[in-house]
Specification:
Radius of gyration: 21 Å
Protein name: Citrate synthase
Number of domains: 2
CATH topology of the largest domain: Citrate Synthase, domain 1
CATH architecture of the largest domain: Orthogonal Bundle
Family: Belongs to the citrate synthase family.
InterPro entries: Citrate_synth-like_lrg_a-sub (IPR016142), Citrate_synth-like_sm_a-sub (IPR016143), Citrate_synthase (IPR002020), Citrate_synthase_AS (IPR019810), Citrate_synthase_bac-typ (IPR024176), Citrate_synthase_sf (IPR036969)
Number of strands: 3
Strand order of the largest sheet: 1-2-3
CATH class of the largest domain: Mainly Alpha
Largest sheet: 3 strands, antiparallel
CATH superfamily of the largest domain: Citrate Synthase, domain 1
Pathway: Carbohydrate metabolism; tricarboxylic acid cycle
Strand content: under 5%
Bound molecules: acetyl coenzyme *A
Organism: Paenibacillus chartarius
Protein backbone atom coordinates (compact mmCIF):
# COMPACT_ATOMS: atom_id res chain seq x y z
CA UNK A 1 0.00 0.00 0.00
CA UNK A 2 1.30 3.48 -0.94
CA UNK A 3 2.38 5.74 1.94
CA UNK A 4 -0.50 8.00 3.03
CA UNK A 5 1.01 11.48 3.46
CA UNK A 6 0.02 15.10 3.01
CA UNK A 7 -3.62 14.56 1.96
CA UNK A 8 -2.52 15.30 -1.62
CA UNK A 9 -5.48 15.29 -4.01
CA UNK A 10 -8.02 14.77 -1.22
CA UNK A 11 -11.09 17.04 -1.55
CA UNK A 12 -11.91 18.43 1.92
CA UNK A 13 -14.70 20.90 1.09
CA UNK A 14 -16.80 22.51 -1.61
CA UNK A 15 -16.24 26.25 -1.85
CA UNK A 16 -17.60 29.26 -3.75
CA UNK A 17 -14.70 31.46 -2.63
CA UNK A 18 -11.70 30.64 -4.78
CA UNK A 19 -10.51 28.27 -7.50
CA UNK A 20 -6.88 27.22 -7.79
CA UNK A 21 -6.14 25.33 -11.02
CA UNK A 22 -2.55 24.18 -10.75
CA UNK A 23 -2.34 22.64 -14.23
CA UNK A 24 -3.53 25.74 -16.07
CA UNK A 25 -2.04 28.27 -13.62
CA UNK A 26 -5.43 29.83 -12.83
CA UNK A 27 -6.49 31.60 -9.65
CA UNK A 28 -10.09 32.82 -9.50
CA UNK A 29 -11.80 34.78 -6.72
CA UNK A 30 -15.57 34.37 -6.85
CA UNK A 31 -15.66 34.46 -10.65
CA UNK A 32 -12.94 37.08 -11.17
CA UNK A 33 -9.29 36.51 -12.14
CA UNK A 34 -7.32 37.25 -8.98
CA UNK A 35 -4.58 38.96 -11.03
CA UNK A 36 -7.19 41.42 -12.39
CA UNK A 37 -8.71 42.03 -8.96
CA UNK A 38 -5.21 42.82 -7.67
CA UNK A 39 -4.60 45.45 -10.31
CA UNK A 40 -8.05 47.03 -10.75
CA UNK A 41 -9.62 46.98 -7.28
CA UNK A 42 -8.84 48.20 -3.79
CA UNK A 43 -8.08 45.95 -0.82
CA UNK A 44 -11.50 46.74 0.63
CA UNK A 45 -13.31 45.85 -2.61
CA UNK A 46 -11.42 42.55 -2.88
CA UNK A 47 -12.17 41.66 0.74
CA UNK A 48 -15.86 42.48 0.23
CA UNK A 49 -15.85 40.20 -2.83
CA UNK A 50 -14.41 37.27 -0.87
CA UNK A 51 -16.60 37.71 2.24
CA UNK A 52 -19.90 38.68 0.64
CA UNK A 53 -19.61 37.10 -2.83
CA UNK A 54 -19.79 40.33 -4.83
CA UNK A 55 -18.00 43.60 -5.32
CA UNK A 56 -19.44 46.41 -3.19
CA UNK A 57 -21.42 49.31 -4.60
CA UNK A 58 -20.33 52.82 -3.63
CA UNK A 59 -22.38 52.90 -0.41
CA UNK A 60 -21.29 49.43 0.69
CA UNK A 61 -17.66 50.31 0.06
CA UNK A 62 -17.95 53.54 2.04
CA UNK A 63 -19.55 51.75 4.99
CA UNK A 64 -17.01 48.90 4.89
CA UNK A 65 -14.15 51.40 4.99
CA UNK A 66 -15.79 53.14 7.95
CA UNK A 67 -16.16 49.86 9.85
CA UNK A 68 -12.55 48.82 9.12
CA UNK A 69 -11.37 52.20 10.34
CA UNK A 70 -13.24 51.75 13.63
CA UNK A 71 -11.97 48.17 14.04
CA UNK A 72 -8.34 49.27 13.59
CA UNK A 73 -8.26 50.63 17.15
CA UNK A 74 -6.64 48.07 19.48
CA UNK A 75 -8.93 46.88 22.30
CA UNK A 76 -7.68 47.99 25.73
CA UNK A 77 -6.67 44.41 26.62
CA UNK A 78 -4.11 44.14 23.80
CA UNK A 79 -1.35 46.69 24.50
CA UNK A 80 -0.52 45.25 27.97
CA UNK A 81 -0.63 41.72 26.59
CA UNK A 82 1.60 42.60 23.63
CA UNK A 83 4.03 44.44 25.91
CA UNK A 84 4.19 41.48 28.31
CA UNK A 85 5.32 39.00 25.67
CA UNK A 86 9.10 38.43 25.54
CA UNK A 87 10.91 40.52 22.94
CA UNK A 88 12.45 37.37 21.51
CA UNK A 89 9.06 35.86 20.65
CA UNK A 90 8.57 35.74 16.85
CA UNK A 91 5.86 38.10 15.59
CA UNK A 92 3.86 35.12 14.31
CA UNK A 93 3.66 33.67 17.83
CA UNK A 94 2.68 37.09 19.16
CA UNK A 95 -0.08 37.34 16.57
CA UNK A 96 -1.34 33.87 17.34
CA UNK A 97 -1.57 34.62 21.05
CA UNK A 98 -3.07 38.09 20.51
CA UNK A 99 -5.80 36.78 18.22
CA UNK A 100 -6.58 33.88 20.58
CA UNK A 101 -7.00 36.40 23.41
CA UNK A 102 -9.69 38.45 21.64
CA UNK A 103 -13.16 38.74 23.04
CA UNK A 104 -16.04 40.59 21.42
CA UNK A 105 -15.67 44.40 21.56
CA UNK A 106 -18.05 44.49 24.57
CA UNK A 107 -15.87 41.98 26.48
CA UNK A 108 -18.09 38.92 26.08
CA UNK A 109 -16.34 35.71 24.98
CA UNK A 110 -16.61 34.96 21.28
CA UNK A 111 -18.82 32.04 20.37
CA UNK A 112 -19.86 29.95 17.36
CA UNK A 113 -21.29 30.66 14.78
CA UNK A 114 -18.76 33.10 13.32
CA UNK A 115 -19.98 36.52 12.14
CA UNK A 116 -18.92 38.72 9.19
CA UNK A 117 -18.21 41.54 11.65
CA UNK A 118 -15.52 39.33 13.22
CA UNK A 119 -13.97 38.78 9.78
CA UNK A 120 -13.83 42.54 9.23
CA UNK A 121 -12.50 43.20 12.72
CA UNK A 122 -9.69 40.65 12.47
CA UNK A 123 -8.69 41.94 9.05
CA UNK A 124 -8.52 45.51 10.36
CA UNK A 125 -6.77 44.52 13.59
CA UNK A 126 -3.95 42.35 12.27
CA UNK A 127 -1.90 45.17 10.67
CA UNK A 128 -2.54 47.34 13.76
CA UNK A 129 -1.22 44.59 16.05
CA UNK A 130 1.81 43.95 13.82
CA UNK A 131 2.62 47.68 13.70
CA UNK A 132 2.17 48.15 17.47
CA UNK A 133 4.42 45.23 18.32
CA UNK A 134 7.03 46.17 15.72
CA UNK A 135 7.33 49.77 16.91
CA UNK A 136 7.39 48.83 20.59
CA UNK A 137 10.09 46.21 19.93
CA UNK A 138 12.23 48.97 18.37
CA UNK A 139 11.61 51.32 21.31
CA UNK A 140 9.29 53.55 19.24
CA UNK A 141 5.90 54.97 20.22
CA UNK A 142 2.92 53.28 18.54
CA UNK A 143 1.26 55.25 15.73
CA UNK A 144 -2.54 55.50 15.71
CA UNK A 145 -4.30 54.61 12.44
CA UNK A 146 -4.79 57.50 10.02
CA UNK A 147 -8.48 58.32 9.52
CA UNK A 148 -8.07 59.15 5.83
CA UNK A 149 -5.95 56.22 4.61
CA UNK A 150 -7.08 52.94 3.11
CA UNK A 151 -6.05 49.56 4.44
CA UNK A 152 -2.62 49.06 2.82
CA UNK A 153 -1.55 52.69 3.21
CA UNK A 154 -2.67 52.65 6.84
CA UNK A 155 -0.54 49.57 7.52
CA UNK A 156 2.57 51.32 6.18
CA UNK A 157 1.61 54.50 8.05
CA UNK A 158 1.16 52.69 11.39
CA UNK A 159 4.58 51.04 10.87
CA UNK A 160 6.53 54.14 9.89
CA UNK A 161 4.53 57.16 11.09
CA UNK A 162 4.82 58.59 7.58
CA UNK A 163 2.19 58.71 4.84
CA UNK A 164 3.51 56.21 2.26
CA UNK A 165 4.22 56.91 -1.39
CA UNK A 166 1.12 56.02 -3.44
CA UNK A 167 3.21 53.60 -5.57
CA UNK A 168 4.23 51.71 -2.42
CA UNK A 169 0.66 51.50 -1.13
CA UNK A 170 -0.50 50.30 -4.56
CA UNK A 171 2.18 47.61 -4.78
CA UNK A 172 1.38 46.44 -1.26
CA UNK A 173 -2.35 46.39 -2.11
CA UNK A 174 -1.65 44.13 -5.11
CA UNK A 175 0.40 41.81 -2.93
CA UNK A 176 -2.20 41.72 -0.16
CA UNK A 177 -4.99 40.95 -2.63
CA UNK A 178 -3.01 38.15 -4.28
CA UNK A 179 -2.25 36.74 -0.83
CA UNK A 180 -5.84 36.79 0.39
CA UNK A 181 -7.08 33.45 -0.80
CA UNK A 182 -5.70 30.21 -2.13
CA UNK A 183 -8.16 27.35 -1.86
CA UNK A 184 -7.60 24.60 0.67
CA UNK A 185 -4.01 25.51 1.61
CA UNK A 186 -2.68 24.25 4.94
CA UNK A 187 -3.61 27.32 7.02
CA UNK A 188 -7.10 27.67 5.52
CA UNK A 189 -7.65 23.98 6.18
CA UNK A 190 -6.53 24.57 9.77
CA UNK A 191 -9.02 27.42 10.15
CA UNK A 192 -11.87 25.32 8.75
CA UNK A 193 -10.96 22.30 10.91
CA UNK A 194 -10.95 24.43 14.07
CA UNK A 195 -14.19 26.13 13.13
CA UNK A 196 -15.82 22.77 12.33
CA UNK A 197 -15.67 21.90 16.03
CA UNK A 198 -17.90 24.97 16.64
CA UNK A 199 -14.97 26.84 18.08
CA UNK A 200 -15.12 30.62 17.59
CA UNK A 201 -13.69 32.74 14.75
CA UNK A 202 -10.76 34.02 16.80
CA UNK A 203 -9.70 30.48 17.76
CA UNK A 204 -9.95 29.41 14.11
CA UNK A 205 -7.77 32.28 12.89
CA UNK A 206 -5.31 31.74 15.73
CA UNK A 207 -4.94 28.10 14.63
CA UNK A 208 -4.42 29.23 11.04
CA UNK A 209 -1.67 31.64 12.11
CA UNK A 210 0.17 28.78 13.82
CA UNK A 211 0.00 26.81 10.58
CA UNK A 212 1.12 29.77 8.50
CA UNK A 213 4.23 30.20 10.65
CA UNK A 214 6.08 27.21 9.18
CA UNK A 215 8.77 27.78 6.52
CA UNK A 216 7.08 25.42 4.06
CA UNK A 217 4.02 27.68 4.03
CA UNK A 218 4.28 31.32 5.07
CA UNK A 219 7.85 31.49 6.21
CA UNK A 220 9.47 31.52 2.77
CA UNK A 221 9.67 35.22 1.80
CA UNK A 222 12.20 36.22 4.42
CA UNK A 223 14.27 33.21 3.38
CA UNK A 224 14.05 34.37 -0.24
CA UNK A 225 15.52 37.72 0.76
CA UNK A 226 18.25 35.99 2.75
CA UNK A 227 19.01 33.88 -0.34
CA UNK A 228 19.15 36.89 -2.70
CA UNK A 229 21.33 38.82 -0.27
CA UNK A 230 23.68 35.87 0.13
CA UNK A 231 23.92 35.38 -3.64
CA UNK A 232 24.63 39.10 -3.97
CA UNK A 233 25.63 39.28 -7.65
CA UNK A 234 24.48 37.78 -10.94
CA UNK A 235 27.87 36.07 -11.36
CA UNK A 236 27.53 34.15 -8.09
CA UNK A 237 23.96 32.92 -8.73
CA UNK A 238 24.53 29.65 -10.56
CA UNK A 239 27.25 28.38 -8.22
CA UNK A 240 25.22 29.28 -5.13
CA UNK A 241 22.01 27.63 -6.37
CA UNK A 242 23.86 24.56 -7.62
CA UNK A 243 25.54 24.11 -4.21
CA UNK A 244 22.14 24.02 -2.46
CA UNK A 245 20.72 21.52 -4.93
CA UNK A 246 23.89 19.35 -4.81
CA UNK A 247 23.33 19.00 -1.05
CA UNK A 248 19.67 18.05 -1.57
CA UNK A 249 18.47 21.42 -0.22
CA UNK A 250 15.41 23.40 -1.29
CA UNK A 251 15.38 26.71 -3.09
CA UNK A 252 13.02 29.05 -1.26
CA UNK A 253 10.38 30.68 -3.44
CA UNK A 254 10.21 27.72 -5.84
CA UNK A 255 7.85 24.77 -6.10
CA UNK A 256 4.24 24.40 -5.10
CA UNK A 257 1.98 21.53 -4.16
CA UNK A 258 -0.73 22.62 -6.57
CA UNK A 259 0.90 24.68 -9.32
CA UNK A 260 2.71 22.52 -11.83
CA UNK A 261 3.09 25.49 -14.12
CA UNK A 262 3.78 29.16 -13.42
CA UNK A 263 2.08 30.42 -10.26
CA UNK A 264 -0.22 33.20 -11.58
CA UNK A 265 0.44 35.23 -8.43
CA UNK A 266 4.18 35.16 -9.09
CA UNK A 267 3.52 36.30 -12.67
CA UNK A 268 1.32 39.20 -11.50
CA UNK A 269 3.73 40.20 -8.75
CA UNK A 270 6.68 40.14 -11.16
CA UNK A 271 4.88 42.84 -13.19
CA UNK A 272 4.13 44.88 -10.05
CA UNK A 273 7.76 44.56 -8.90
CA UNK A 274 9.05 45.56 -12.30
CA UNK A 275 6.94 48.75 -12.24
CA UNK A 276 8.36 49.57 -8.83
CA UNK A 277 12.00 48.59 -9.23
CA UNK A 278 12.48 47.62 -12.91
CA UNK A 279 15.82 49.38 -13.39
CA UNK A 280 17.44 48.42 -10.09
CA UNK A 281 20.22 45.88 -9.61
CA UNK A 282 18.10 44.00 -7.08
CA UNK A 283 15.32 43.40 -9.63
CA UNK A 284 17.83 42.31 -12.28
CA UNK A 285 19.38 39.91 -9.76
CA UNK A 286 15.95 38.51 -8.81
CA UNK A 287 15.09 37.89 -12.49
CA UNK A 288 18.45 36.22 -13.09
CA UNK A 289 18.10 34.01 -10.01
CA UNK A 290 14.56 33.07 -11.09
CA UNK A 291 15.65 32.00 -14.58
CA UNK A 292 18.78 30.18 -13.35
CA UNK A 293 16.90 28.37 -10.57
CA UNK A 294 14.16 27.13 -12.93
CA UNK A 295 16.82 25.78 -15.31
CA UNK A 296 18.75 24.08 -12.49
CA UNK A 297 15.60 22.66 -10.88
CA UNK A 298 14.78 20.99 -14.19
CA UNK A 299 18.34 19.59 -14.26
CA UNK A 300 18.34 18.33 -10.64
CA UNK A 301 14.64 17.48 -10.31
CA UNK A 302 13.58 16.55 -13.84
CA UNK A 303 9.84 16.23 -14.39
CA UNK A 304 8.87 17.75 -11.01
CA UNK A 305 7.75 20.97 -12.75
CA UNK A 306 9.16 23.41 -10.18
CA UNK A 307 8.61 27.10 -10.92
CA UNK A 308 8.65 30.38 -9.03
CA UNK A 309 5.92 30.58 -6.38
CA UNK A 310 4.20 33.65 -4.94
CA UNK A 311 6.81 34.08 -2.21
CA UNK A 312 9.65 34.86 -4.59
CA UNK A 313 8.32 38.18 -5.92
CA UNK A 314 6.43 38.88 -2.70
CA UNK A 315 9.85 39.13 -1.12
CA UNK A 316 11.02 41.49 -3.87
CA UNK A 317 7.98 43.77 -3.44
CA UNK A 318 8.20 43.88 0.33
CA UNK A 319 11.86 44.67 0.17
CA UNK A 320 11.23 47.42 -2.47
CA UNK A 321 8.70 49.12 -0.20
CA UNK A 322 11.22 48.78 2.64
CA UNK A 323 9.18 46.47 4.80
CA UNK A 324 11.58 44.80 7.26
CA UNK A 325 12.15 41.11 6.46
CA UNK A 326 10.90 40.09 9.92
CA UNK A 327 7.46 41.39 8.87
CA UNK A 328 7.15 39.45 5.60
CA UNK A 329 5.33 36.44 7.02
CA UNK A 330 3.16 38.57 9.35
CA UNK A 331 2.19 40.70 6.35
CA UNK A 332 1.26 37.60 4.35
CA UNK A 333 -0.78 36.58 7.40
CA UNK A 334 -2.59 39.92 7.44
CA UNK A 335 -3.51 39.31 3.78
CA UNK A 336 -4.61 35.70 4.21
CA UNK A 337 -6.84 36.64 7.15
CA UNK A 338 -9.43 37.68 4.57
CA UNK A 339 -9.45 34.23 2.99
CA UNK A 340 -9.39 32.38 6.31
CA UNK A 341 -12.34 34.32 7.65
CA UNK A 342 -14.30 33.90 4.38
CA UNK A 343 -13.74 30.14 4.66
CA UNK A 344 -14.74 30.04 8.32
CA UNK A 345 -18.00 31.84 7.46
CA UNK A 346 -18.59 29.40 4.61
CA UNK A 347 -17.78 26.39 6.82
CA UNK A 348 -20.41 27.48 9.34
CA UNK A 349 -23.09 27.27 6.64
CA UNK A 350 -22.36 23.62 5.83
CA UNK A 351 -20.75 22.53 9.04
CA UNK A 352 -19.87 18.95 9.86
CA UNK A 353 -16.88 18.26 12.10
CA UNK A 354 -13.72 17.26 10.18
CA UNK A 355 -12.74 13.81 11.32
CA UNK A 356 -10.46 11.90 8.90
CA UNK A 357 -9.01 8.53 9.69
CA UNK A 358 -5.50 7.20 10.04
CA UNK A 359 -4.05 3.85 9.09
CA UNK A 360 -2.51 2.21 12.13
CA UNK A 361 1.03 1.00 11.36
CA UNK A 362 2.22 0.33 14.91
CA UNK A 363 2.60 -3.01 16.65
CA UNK A 364 -0.42 -5.00 17.82
CA UNK A 365 -0.62 -6.32 21.37
CA UNK A 366 0.37 -9.93 21.82
CA UNK A 367 -2.76 -11.97 22.25
CA UNK A 368 -2.88 -14.14 25.33
CA UNK A 369 -3.80 -17.80 25.14
N1 LIG B 1 13.84 23.24 -4.22
C1 LIG B 1 14.36 22.06 -4.53
N2 LIG B 1 13.64 20.93 -4.70
C2 LIG B 1 12.31 21.03 -4.51
C3 LIG B 1 11.69 22.24 -4.17
C4 LIG B 1 12.50 23.38 -4.03
N3 LIG B 1 11.99 24.57 -3.71
N4 LIG B 1 10.37 22.02 -4.04
C5 LIG B 1 10.16 20.72 -4.28
N5 LIG B 1 11.35 20.12 -4.57
C6 LIG B 1 11.54 18.72 -4.92
C7 LIG B 1 11.52 17.82 -3.70
O1 LIG B 1 12.80 17.68 -3.15
C8 LIG B 1 10.97 16.55 -4.27
O2 LIG B 1 12.01 15.88 -4.91
P1 LIG B 1 12.06 14.25 -4.96
O3 LIG B 1 10.88 13.86 -5.81
O4 LIG B 1 13.39 13.96 -5.56
O5 LIG B 1 11.92 13.79 -3.54
C9 LIG B 1 9.99 17.01 -5.35
O6 LIG B 1 10.45 18.31 -5.74
C10 LIG B 1 8.55 17.13 -4.86
O7 LIG B 1 8.57 17.86 -3.64
P2 LIG B 1 7.49 17.71 -2.47
O8 LIG B 1 8.11 18.13 -1.19
O9 LIG B 1 6.84 16.36 -2.55
O10 LIG B 1 6.42 18.76 -2.91
P3 LIG B 1 5.31 19.35 -1.97
O11 LIG B 1 4.13 19.56 -2.85
O12 LIG B 1 5.11 18.52 -0.76
O13 LIG B 1 5.98 20.72 -1.50
C11 LIG B 1 6.53 22.97 -1.21
C12 LIG B 1 5.58 21.98 -1.91
C13 LIG B 1 6.49 22.72 0.30
C14 LIG B 1 6.05 24.41 -1.48
C15 LIG B 1 7.97 22.77 -1.77
O14 LIG B 1 7.97 23.02 -3.16
C16 LIG B 1 9.01 23.64 -1.05
O15 LIG B 1 9.52 23.22 -0.03
N6 LIG B 1 9.33 24.84 -1.61
C17 LIG B 1 10.27 25.71 -0.96
C18 LIG B 1 9.57 26.51 0.17
C19 LIG B 1 8.65 27.57 -0.36
O16 LIG B 1 8.96 28.31 -1.31
N7 LIG B 1 7.47 27.66 0.28
C20 LIG B 1 6.43 28.65 -0.09
C21 LIG B 1 5.30 27.94 -0.78
S1 LIG B 1 4.08 29.06 -1.39
C22 LIG B 1 3.06 29.31 -0.03
O17 LIG B 1 3.01 28.59 0.90
C23 LIG B 1 2.21 30.52 -0.11
Amino acid sequence: MAKVTGLEGVVAAETDIGLVDGERGHLIYRGYWAKDVAVHFSFEEAAHLLWYGELPDEGELFRLKERLQAYRELPASLPPLLDAMPKSLPTMSVLQAAVASLTEPDGTPAAWPPAPSQAERLTALLPAIIAYRYRRSKGLDPVQPHPELDHAANYLYMLTGTIPEPAHAKALTAYLILGMEHGMNASTFSARVTSSTQSDMYAAVSAAIGTMKGPLHGGAPSEVIAMLEDIGTVERAEGWLRAVLEQGGRLMGFGHRIYKTKDPRAEALRTVTEKLTGDTDSFKLALHVEQTAIRLLEEYKPGRRLYTNVEFFAAAIMSAIQLPAELFTPTFTAARTVGWTAHVLEQAGVNRIFRPQSVYTGPMPTLGD
